[in-house]
Amino acid sequence: MQVTWQADQVELVVRPCLSLCQWVPTRADEDLFACQGCGSQWRPGAGWTPVDADGHVPAEVRHALLTSVRPAAGAGRADSSTTTGS
């Protein structure tokens, strides 16, 4: 069984887990990762974080998460609760 999932205007392949997870960057797209166990795909902003079969987040995935951080909605806006002053 295979389904697709939309993240940031790109469809990702999502397949059932086989507990053989090993997430690696793809050669086609530096922000796209693929599981070597089942073939599922992930990219930063997908709303979840891939984990290898040993329970650890791969270093390349951590790096992608840290370099793709986007400001939270409303951050820095005049109507934001984080704005100081009156």
In words, what does this structure look like?
The protein starts with a strand and ends in a 19-residue tail after the last helix. The chain has one helix at 59-67, and strands at residues 3-7, 10-14, 23-25, 33-35, 41-42. Mean pLDDT is 78; it is low at 79-84. A 3-stranded antiparallel β-sheet has the order 3-4-5, with no helix packed on it. Strands 1-2 form a two-stranded antiparallel sheet. The protein is globular. It contains 1 helix and 5 strands; from the N terminus they run βββββα. Helices cover 10% and strands 21% of the residues. It is α+β, with helices and mostly antiparallel strands.
Please summarize what this structure is.
The protein is of the alpha+beta class and 86 residues long.
Topology, pairings included?
Elements: E1 3-7, E2 10-14, E3 23-25, E4 33-35, E5 41-42, H1 59-67
Antiparallel strand pairs: 1-2, 3-4, 4-5
Q: Uncertain regions: pLDDT < 50 for 5+ in a row?
A: 79-84
Class of secondary structure makeup: alpha+beta
The total count of helices amounts to 1
Main β-sheet, spatial strand arrangement: 3-4-5
Determine the N-to-C terminus distance.
Answer: 56 Å
Fraction in beta strands:
15-25%
Strand count = 5
List keywords for this structure.
single chain; 86 residues; alpha+beta; three-stranded antiparallel β-sheet; two-stranded antiparallel sheet; 1 helix; 21% strand; disordered C terminus
